[in-house]
Amino acid sequence: MSRVIAIALMYLVSISDTNSGQASACNLGPRLNCYCSFVESVGKYSVDCSGLRFDGGPIGTLEIVNPGGRDIYRITFRDSGVTDIVENAFDNMPNLFSLNLRDNQITAFPANAMRRLQLVEEIDLSYNYLTDIPNDTMDHMTSLRDFEAQGNRLTTIGSNAFIGQSSSLQEIDFKYNQLTGIPDAVKTLSALRILDMSYNTFSPSNLPSGIFNNMNALTSLDLQTTYILNIDPQAFVGLESSVDRIVVANNNLTTLERCTFEKLTALTTLWVDSNPFVCGCELAWLERFFASWPVWRQARCRPVSGGSEVNITDFVSQNCGGYQPPACP
Ligand SMILES: *[C@@H]1O[C@H](CO)[C@@H](O)[C@H](O)[C@H]1NC(C)=O
Ligand SMILES: *[C@@H]1O[C@H](CO)[C@@H](O)[C@H](O)[C@H]1NC(C)=O
Ligand SMILES: *[C@@H]1O[C@H](CO)[C@@H](O)[C@H](O)[C@H]1NC(C)=O
Question: Which residues form the signal peptide (predicted)?
Fold first, then answer.
């Protein structure tokens, strides 16, 4: 059913023409042939095959022809209707640094196609139909720094999936997937700086003790809209001197313990809006973070006595004059 495509690098786009919008184009030969634009700089080629279409249809199975064996360091197939990728597709690109397959219809992690990519540092598989990232598929990619998989259907990340990246991986984007918690494979990533798990449904709906214990480089953690109901007081142990930004907005939190956050000495940004907080003076500590919020975020709580939500700042100024927070253990 799927058609086969040969990508031949036919058009030479000089560096000064980068912004001229050279279109990728396809025509029907013995097979469907598409041509990508590229830019060359000191013998390295950056290839753009985005938006490939033939008669408006997706291109299907991807095969790549690289006449002259050009040294490709960056290749982009964004929104080209790629459904799958032949096994040796990237074999003649040993120096590939960046692979972008965003906005396609890929259902299985393209492990075979990527098996020769040793030096790749950035992979973007966002907005495909992936359901899992199996064990042992990326072990050889020991330079991978940035892994983007936003907007897939991920339910399973093999517990050894990132074993080859334990000291290289700095950024992971799993936003908009179907993951039920922080994957075990992520918990051992000691170089990880940015983790986006937002818009997943955590089950059980809590952040347990010690989950970030081995992630001592983490600076930014996004857990927006993950349906968490509570955060263990020891959940952020390990992040004391690294984490600068935590987002737990739009969850099911009814309170937030000051002591859970107190030892996070690097924390400057904490977004907690759109939670069903119950008003109480123990929320007063949040005020020191409000200045870091964008104006459209509002910190509100619901009075114990019922009734409509009130602004936490207003609640605290009206009710918590002499309040002394308890000491942290
Ligand atoms: C991955 O490998 C680990 C360790 O061998 C194993 O326990 C696990 O079941 C494997 N599969 C997944 C999906 O995690
Ligand atoms: C969490 O919040 C959502 C919407 O804000 C609500 O539909 C859901 O019932 C809540 N879940 C729990 C377990 O409180
Ligand atoms: C609380 O309300 C005041 C005034 O109504 C507003 O200026 C402020 O931004 C609100 N603060 C938060 C954090 O919602």
Answer: 1-25
